[in-house]
Amino acid sequence: xxxxxxxxxxxxxxxxxxxxxxxxxxxxxxxxxxxxxxxxxxxxxxxxxxxxxxxxxxxxxxxxxxxxxxxxxxxxxxxxxxxxxxxxxxxxxxxxxxxxxxxxxxxxxxxx
Length: 112
Known about the structure:
Blueprint: H1 3-12, H2 26-52, H3 70-74, H4 82-90
C-alpha cells in the first residue's frame, strides 16, 4: 500500500492520522544541511582549481623559424633524438621473416 491509500483509509474511517504523517523530521533537516555544506565545499574547491588554469595552453618559449629560401627549407637541422632514430633504423628487425632451408637457416619441418 502506498502512503496515500493509508491516509485515505484513515480519513474514511473517521480517524485522525498521526501528526507526523507527511512531515519531514529532524533527520531530513540534518541530511539537507550536510548536503548543502558538501556542495559549498565542492564549489569552493572547484573555483580554486579553475583559478590555477592558465589563460592559454600555447607554448610561449617555442618559436618556430620559417626559412627564407627554398635552400634553407631543404637543409635539415639536427633535431633532438636524431641519434636514437638512426640507431633504431640500423638495428635488426624485431620480427624476422621465416628462413628457408637454402638460406642456411634451420631445416624446414617435413610435411606429413
